[in-house]
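quick one before i forget lol
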Amino acid sequence: MLERLDRYCFLHGIFRTIELGAGKDGTVYGTSRGTAVKVHARIESYTRERDIYLRLRDRRVRKVWMFNIPRLRDYDDDGLVLEMSIVTPPYLLDFASAFLDVRPDFSQEVEQEWQRNIQESFGDRFGEVMAALEALERDAGVILLDIHPHNVKFE
């Protein structure tokens, strides 16, 4: 993965700096031009996240509710690399597991468990998180399901 990322950086005249985060879908690094680059492990998560960032860009969605959203700067389909702005809290991040336009058909039990997990993670701020998710779906057709304190930050 680093070889693909370094190729992207070389072609764009930048270099990667510190690791900003890592997860099941890929690793995010800072760059010398003050952006973040995410190199994906799998094409499925890359394509999903790229398409969501393109939708957000097309609809000029930069903020949802009170949360900042990274803006897509560039991408490389061959290298599975996304380059985006770095955002400060409050923010929503990581769209690799999100859906466009069509909500997955989860059972009522799964939906309730998902909401319980969000409530446990965010406590009194549960309503704000849910309001942001509803606004994101309404304004951009993005259904963000991977909700936890690393992807949704208040401060």
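fyi Helices lie at 2-11, 43-58, 108-122, 126-140.
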